[in-house]
Amino acid sequence: MSAPIVSVRGLWKRYGLPSPAAAVARWLGRPRPERWALRAVDLELARGESVGLLGRNGAGKSTLLKVLAGASPPTHGEVSVPARLFPMIELNAGVHEELTGRENAYLLGAFLGLSRRDLRRRLGAIAEFSELGEWFDEPYWKYSSGMRARLGFSTAVNVDAELLLVDEVLAVGDLPFRRKCLAHLAELQRRGTSLLVVSHDLRQLERLCDRAVYLRQGEVAARGPCAEVISEYTRDTARRRTNEDGLPLPEPEQPVAVAALELRDEVGRPCACFRTGDALRLRLRYRSQVRQAGATVSFSVINDQLAVLGSFGRALDLEPGDEGTLALRIPSLPLLTGVYALNVRFRTREGAKLAHAEGAGGFEVVSPAPLLRHSEGGMVHIAVEWEEVSPPGSNREAADS
């Protein structure tokens, strides 16, 4: 078995916080305020593997990439990256506003360690991939943000790297170019290039990555297959009950426990990213500690604490020690783009609460481009039938007669 292309053991990274409070602390002879950006992080990436990093802003994702790229030293721990890597973290760092796109491609390539001969050989491919046309020889200051992204990404992907560190660089640029970039990254994967990807686009992560790591306040909160980790992340994102450290409060003991809630696509594969109109399957496992005839179980889908979908209750009889599984299918998910969570409730026949699991499952919805482009807002897509009351031009004909 070959050695991993990335090996991180017990990584801690600390930043000092420059502020008036730091100056006062120094004057008083107290330690300088500091913040741990990463805490005891372990990570391995095999050659040819793709791993996604997800987490809220400030969770330590970009810091981890910078440490791996050698741009920021670790405070404690061991970091080994025995490979030629390219950090796609800040694609246009080092460009000159007065230089042309062609000249800046030379400049960026030089920063990446390419020789003049290599740059001359690759310049045609860079220009072709960027699709900048005559703009390739125009000054950089004339470029739009999308054109700048094209130039930076086109230069980056024409470097023969064994490992790419990708930090949100696919969040810019127009839709056709983003699709082209994703297709090119997929081709690099087929050639054996390893990827470590940071993105808030969960569907993009699921498409690109074999597995994922969820960072929460600098620590690894979950790792494993993409769908499972994304579900954990979206469940945390939707859950607002937190303690002073921002961590979820433990659920109180209830007469009925929700053991697990699985989200699957139409063919039964674990899934955390759906498109508007997709079928969604739920499987709920529960344990009962009470006897309750005529109990009901229901689901609701929430977005930022607002319930946007709900189900009518399913009746069932519970006995102490019961362990059961319930399945539910939504034939056509009517939700528009967003991150959602599922609440599960068990109640008695009279409506008393037996269990209330907040954020028992989480998922993301991405709307197809035509829906997204023509949507007038909201969170739910409804099918309507337009009825033509009077044909076009009928009012004009009546006025002319």
Summarize the structure.
The chain is α/β, with parallel strands linked by helices. Helices cover 26% and strands 34% of the residues. It has helices at 20-27, 61-69, 101-111, 116-130, 145-156, 175-190, 202-208, 226-238, 369-374, 394-400, and strands at 6-16, 34-45, 50-54, 76-80, 85-88, 163-167, 194-198, 211-216, 219-225, 256-264, 273-275, 280-288, 292-303, 306-310, 314-318, 323-330, 338-347, 353-366.
Give an overview of the whole structure.
Helices cover 26% and strands 34% of the residues. It contains ten helices and 18 strands. It has a six-stranded mixed sheet with strand order 5-6-7-3-8-9, sandwiched between helices. Strands 11, 13, 14, 15, 17 and 18 form a six-stranded mixed sheet that branches. Helix 3 (101-111) crosses helix 4 (116-130), helix 3 (101-111) packs across helix 5 (145-156) and helix 4 packs across helix 5 (145-156). The termini are far apart.
Write the layout of secondary structure elements.
Blueprint: E1 6-16, H1 20-27, E2 34-45, E3 50-54, H2 61-69, E4 76-80, E5 85-88, H3 101-111, H4 116-130, H5 145-156, E6 163-167, H6 175-190, E7 194-198, H7 202-208, E8 211-216, E9 219-225, H8 226-238, E10 256-264, E11 273-275, E12 280-288, E13 292-303, E14 306-310, E15 314-318, E16 323-330, E17 338-347, E18 353-366, H9 369-374, H10 394-400
Parallel strand pairs: 3-7, 3-8, 5-6, 6-7, 11-18
Antiparallel strand pairs: 1-2, 1-4, 8-9, 10-12, 12-16, 13-14, 13-15, 13-17, 17-18
Helix pairs in contact: 3-4, 3-5, 4-5
